[in-house]
Amino acid sequence: MTLFLSTFENKIDKKGRVSVPAAFRAALSSESFQGFVAFRSYKFPAIECCSFSRMQRLSQSVDALDLFSDAQDDLAATIFADAQQIPIDGDGRVILPKMLLDYAHLEEQIAFVGRGATFQIWEPKAFALLQAKARASVKEHQVTVKLRNDLSPGGGTRA
């Protein structure tokens, strides 16, 4: 399973390129597409990113919804119509489309934020504010998680 951990900040250079953290490149290295898929978050002023295989699983999940239902149509328009395949060049850099940069208010610095099976790209100060609120909420509500016993990506138990 692809796993994205930690937060990394990098500068956008004058040509609009940004280095993808080495740990994220390593996590993506087993994929057939050498890059990632990116689309506007519908929840945050951020860019949602995942491996191509994760995007295929997301597509299958949306396909499982009722055909032509409002939910299926809305999710397809929100996610897939907006999604961009972002190739990583030989030097480990990407160029993000202007539409995505504008949406997330990215100009000089980018925060790559690991979220387990996915990652997000944020304006660093905006993410710092969100992270502080999230930490306070977890503490206030004493949120916990039950550790799953299965390890397979589809949720079933491994043989």
From TrEMBL:
Family of this protein: Belongs to the MraZ family.
Keyword Oxidoreductase carried by entry: no
GO biological process, one term: negative regulation of DNA-templated transcription initiation
Ranges of residues in domain SpoVT-AbrB: 7-54
Classification via PROSITE patterns: SPOVT_ABRB
Keyword annotations of the record: Cytoplasm, DNA-binding, Repeat, Transcription, Transcription regulation
Organismal lineage: Bacteria, Pseudomonadati, Pseudomonadota, Alphaproteobacteria, Holosporales
Species assigned in the record: Candidatus Nucleicultrix amoebiphila FS5
InterPro entries registered for this protein in UniProt: MraZ, MraZ_C, MraZ_dom, MraZ_N, MraZ_sf, SpoVT-AbrB_dom, SpoVT-AbrB_sf
PANTHER family named among the record's database cross-references: TRANSCRIPTIONAL REGULATOR MRAZ (PTHR34701)
Name used for this protein in its record: Transcriptional regulator MraZ
Pfam families, per database record: MraZ
Gene Ontology, cellular component aspect: cytoplasm; nucleoid
Subcellular location: Cytoplasm, Nucleoid
Any one GO molecular-function label of the UniProt entry: DNA-binding transcription factor activity
Assembly: Forms oligomers.
Main location: cytoplasm
Superkingdom assignment: Bacteria
NCBIfam families documented for this protein: PRK00326.2-4
